[in-house]
Amino acid sequence: MAISVREVDPAFQGAGQKDGLEIWRIEKLQAVPVPKESHGKFFTGDSYIILKTTALKNGSFRQDIHYWLGKDTSQDEAGTAAIKTVELDAALGGRGVQYRELQGNETEKFLSYFKPCIIPEEGGLASGFRHAEVNAREHVTRLFVCRGKHTVHVKEVPFARSSLNHEDIFILDTESKIFQFNGSNSSIQERAKTLEVVQYLKDINHEGKCDVAAVEDGKLMADADAGEFWGLFGGFAPLPRKTFPELNGIDSAFPPKLLCVNKVQTVSVDCDCLTKALLDSTKCYILDCGSEIYVWMGRETALEDRKRAGLAAEELLREGNRPKSHIIRLMEGFETAIFRSKFNKWPKKAEAVVSDESRGKVAALLKRQGFNAKGITKAAPVKEEPLPQIDCTGNLQVWRVNDSEKTFLSFSEQCKFYSGDCYIFQYSYPGDDGEECLIGTWFGKKSIQEERTAATSLANTMIESLKFQAVLVRLYEGKEPIEFFPIFQNLVIFKGGASTGYKKFVSENGIQDDTYSENGVGLFRVQGSGPDNMQAIQVDTAAPSLNSSYCYILHDGDTVFTWIGNLSSSVDQDLAERQLDVIKPNLQSRMLKEGSEYDQFWKLLGIKSEYPSQKIARDQESDAHLFCCTFSKGVLKVREIFNFTQDDMMTEDIFILDCHSCVFVWVGQHVDTKIQAHALSIGEKFLELDILMENLARETPVYVINEGSEPQYFTRFFTWDSAKSAMRGNSFERRLSVLKDGVKPRRDKPKRRPITSSHAGRSSVPDKSQRRSTSFSPDRVRVRGRSPAFNALAANFENSNARNLSTPPPVATKPFSKSSSPDPVKPPQRAASIAAMSASFERPRQTLIPKSIKATSPDVNKPQSEASKPKPEVNATPTVKDGQTAVTPTIREDVKEGQPEDEEGLPIYPYDRLRTSSTNPAADIDQSRRETYLSSAEFREKFGMTKEAFAKLPKWKQNRLKIALQLF
User: Collapsing DSSP states into helix, strand and coil, what is residue 506?
Assistant: First the structure.
């Protein structure tokens, strides 16, 4: 498409280059920029062009262009606004979606830019008069009718009793008081939204200083405010049932009709069903859907053809006497989800690369003509993934589902999952307003449907027992959100299953049971971001399972290989070494760099073949969309809320927040309990509908969040005030109390307090400095940054009698509370109720202290010197609890990565006796630390560096050097 500089208005120079609003008013058939301080102020006699630029997470810009036509604007100005809109879109590279906005019938997207409302003023430039300025000391009483549950359409009507009706809500703005009259047939949500308009009028017209009164339809003179209100109308009189017609009288069942625009004529396209193949890139089309008319413009069409197509749509409205229908114009490649949904099997939407080329050509052309081309560049991409918004120092409990029951897993077993099983987990952790609770189900890829159903039912029972004060999440293997893995710290996922349901299913169907056996062959992919977030996932034992971006552990009984992908990082290699201590402790592994594998390695994988090199992509979080839901008789209907805020979510409704990587179902406190019970089903039906046509997977994580229990990983999408969701009353009552009393939202209940739990596996701590990464004694040296949960998991695999000295047993820690109650005898109501209810499905268990600790822990009843004499590596660290001093055993580990080792007391042996192939090996040495028994001189000779320099190397590099010298 060729664009002449004479076809582009100079006023659009540099437009659309940053996030926000830009507005132009049509003056003498030219577009004139409107100052930012005047945004939202419209005159009935004028026409405007509004550009909304939104910077998306993928780094691109989304542009929505609206042309607003006042009811008194001239035909010339309206036509100029329509044509200039096409020019602006062309200058932006054809990315924008264009909307025709008629005063009084604006789209919800348009009104969302100017919350809470727009109130056009009389006057205009072309009509020769301006809005009459009123003396500051005078006030004109005005009556407004308000319609809308999510966005409010405000229209001034004559100040007369005949303007009132039972269906709508009215605002009477007097000199000293603002009245809101609620029609008897209006909804609570509409009344609450109208209060935002009352607040707006109070601030604009009264400088925030005037009384506010709510008048209910049907209340007579007995109510003081009602009496005053009706007195202004000359007294009470019955109102008509309905005065105003519906806002949009177009039949919603209007069958879509496709028309091809051929210069000045429109020709109907005959077809049995609408398909993408009917649209030609060299032509423009009109899709008439009744209340909306879409103008589709092919990418290869000329600018004049696009202008003519827009005018043809305007003419179609005039001929059909449908002035309130919306006209939406869009470019090929940038169709909206609603438009695409009108067609059968619209192809998957891909990023329109051609648009970048188009924008580049337009930019080059405009630059040659002296224009600033920055406006059509892309936004800076958002490269970083969001970090897990959850505290990882809480208490974790896990159950495996066996048929219709759940079996509690011990602390050492709770981080081992099987792909054929279903699990339920409860995680309590410190949040912003006290203790938070997350209850979730995890379904393995090969788990059976009966156990999935049972897991869902059992989790719902747990949620109900907590009076819906916990968050529920449904997860599938391979689709876990970023908050999941840090909760478990180190998770191992094995093939097969351990549940009775899975075993029965395999047996009855004659399926080979591939459940993991430590004595057989197993291949594990290692992934994660660090010691507190790492996973080992068993994959098919075949070459295609390898990936150059990861490290793998392959074992056949006691034969172990560590495969290092060429594109893996040092972090990946460190995690692989840590996972070795879990999967195959006490065994030496042969480290294989990609490309230098042994024949034995490929023999175990069956045959050498090609494998991928790109990291496995997880669903990326996209820009969030909020939907209001209605659910009746199994049918889900949704309506998108644009430019949403916390105030858009009413306590009477259910809302869905879709960020593509996961879906949140928010349930208001005043939602009917029968509908509340279907919250998870509503989320699953939303995935099936795929409203945005973004190819949502059925396995996408679904969260169910009840009002008042919002976690941080949900509230981060808003500017959140937790006090608002904790107020008393319905939406209207809450906002009216704030508006009338001028007070901040009052909480309905105290802040959430810690959820007491009998589980002593992990605990929260009172200070961030003492959390997981530093939860050991300060004078204790840590090995490889391991966490208590990691060591407990590793201990389960290890033989306590033949323990690898470099892998210490876990530390026995006592649970701490992040926030202490001032009166421990009387805990807060919420914490006490949750604690009592949690006990109904928690299994009491003793604090986990490994035998190796119990056997060597000093006796606190003996003198301190005697207790600490036998085992110098175990220290008694005093802790204070309830005013008494107790001794908590800790283990002094033998080495800390990145620091030289303490060699005091170690004997010195020659290199020949320390080699693994020595004929006269040294006795009574730590087999995993042979190099530490070398003298400093011989160490420098063999390794080419000092012991201090060696200790600073990554562990995998240390092992490589030790292997080369036969010291590993």
Answer: helix
Q: How many Å apart are CA 459 and CA 8, to the nearest integer?
A: 60
690, 696 Cβ separation under 8 angstroms: yes
Residues 6+ apart with CB under 8 A from 25: 31, 32, 34, 46, 47, 48, 49, 125
**pLDDT tier for residue 163 given thresholds of 50, 70 and 90:** very high
For the CA atoms of 683, 686, 692, 693, the dihedral, rounded to the nearest 10 degrees, stands at 120
384 pLDDT band (50/70/90 cuts)? Answer: low
Q: Are 521 and 556 in contact (CB under 8 A)?
A: yes
Q: Which long-range contacts (CB under 8 A, 24 or more apart) does 269-272 make?
A: none
- Residue 219 confidence class, pLDDT cut points 50, 70, 90: confident
How far is it, in rounded angstroms, from Cα 151 to Cα 153?
7
The model carries a pTM of: 0.76
**Alpha-carbon distances, residue 953 vs 530, 593, 788 (angstroms):** 17, 18, 24
Chain position carrying tokens 């209007």: 254
Q: Could you give the count of Cα atoms lying within 13 Å of 100 in the half-sphere of its Cβ? A: 25
Highest mean pLDDT among 238-242, 262-266, 808-812: 262-266
Which of 201-207's residues contact partners 24+ apart within 8 Å by CB, and which partners?
201/171, 201/173, 202/178, 202/739, 205/139, 205/173, 206/178
Say what the pLDDT of residue 247 is: 42
Angle at CA 402, nearest 5°, toward 401 and 404?
Answer: 85
Checking if the pLDDT of 113 tops 50, the result is: yes
What burial class does residue 295 get, using C-beta atoms within 10 Å of its C-beta: 0-12 exposed, 13-18 middle, 19+ buried? Answer: buried
Is 455 within 8 Å of 401 (Cβ atoms)?
Answer: yes
Mean pLDDT, range 217-244, rounded to an integer: 79
Q: Which class for 718: exposed (0-12), middle (13-18), buried (19 or more C-beta within 10 A)?
A: middle
* Residue 960 backbone phi and psi in degrees, to 5: -65, -45
Cβ neighbors of 654 (< 8 A, separation 6 or more) are 628, 629, 631, 665, 666, 667, 668, 671, 675, 679, 682
d(CA 43, CA 59): 36
Residue whose pair of structure tokens reads 């029951």 in the numeric block: 405
What is the amino acid identity at position 892?
A: R
Residue 484 binned pLDDT confidence (cut-offs 50, 70, 90): very high
Per-residue confidence (pLDDT) for residue 396, from 0 to 100: 95
